[in-house]
Amino acid sequence: MRPWAERTRSELTATGAQDQAPSPAEGPAASLTPQELQIARLAARGLSNRDIATQLFLSHRTVGYHLYKAYPKLGVTSRGDLRTSAEHLGL
To answer: Which of 22, 39, 51, 87 has a C-alpha 20 to 30 A away from that of 31?
Structure first.
């Protein structure tokens, strides 16, 4: 049941519903939309745009767009920056 619960939680988060898990209250990650936050977290773990798209049932172009919008909000310019400073950013 765990995969279904995780899938349900991610779908609810993508729609903007509040998750029971604590979300970053301060810092750069607080300015992200729920979808941007979810995608940034997966990208910080090292997943490619296609892998993220497959996991979230999105187009890889949509994933790229969300990362494009999230990078300036987080103050990073590349996936490498995102990965190395993920903990500091609240991801």
So the answer is: 51
